[in-house]
Amino acid sequence: MLQIIALLFLSWLFIMLYNRQHLSVLGLKPTAVRMKYFFVLMIVSALFAATNFWLKEFFTGEKYILQQPVYVRTILGETWNQLRTVLTEELICRGALLYILIKVAGQSKAILLSSIVFAVLHWLNAGVWGNTMQMILVFSFTFAMGLLLAFAYARTGSLLIPLAIHFGWNITQNYIYPGTETGNHLFVLAAAAPTVTISYGAFFTMLLFPEIAVILVDYSIVKTHRQVTLP
Questions:
Q1: Paired sense of beta strands 64-66 and 187-189, if any
Q2: What DSSP string describes 147-174?
Q3: How confident is the model at residue 180, as a pLDDT?
Q4: Does the predicted model carry a pTM greater than 0.85?
Q5: I need a surface site. Which of 42, 114, 152, 172 has the fewest CB within 10 A?
């Protein structure tokens, strides 16, 4: 919680020093329109993130079961952990940085630059530095996702919109399903993953469909929001 408070303070400070504005320029205040987009985008992102595991069940025979026992306290704690991580990344990679970049360099260049920062940050977080192929894969998706998230803020003037997309994807991949090797997960493999041979088409469908689809569908939803002029 302290890191969120510190980032909010630094965001306020940078924005204030730049053009005497306040945190309101980040659009963190919930409104009816913002919350409508928030919940729609969060649910859509979560569903596409889950298709990665549903496709594995279909093509490879993997089976996921609910982890037992399930405690409400654990669900709330893990949800907060994911939300805290996402909010931290949003404040660092978008937030004041993106707002100031838009004002200084224009929307297109600002979106591009913040997306590069977002992708490089995931190189470090994912621990793939030095592995060329994994670096390319991680950069490709996180850069494309960064473009979507930055565009979502630039289009709507609210950090809540990219937060919804980011949170829906992360909580599904990192907590609801075992998209990471470590940590608690709500659903787990019922047994060791079976060894199967699948076609290249099936492999790339499992690998790419969720990532491409979430970006395209979320982009089309964000586009329906009227363009907001940042103060």
A1: antiparallel
A2: HHHHHHHHHHS-THHHHHHHHHHHHIII
A3: 75
A4: yes
A5: 42
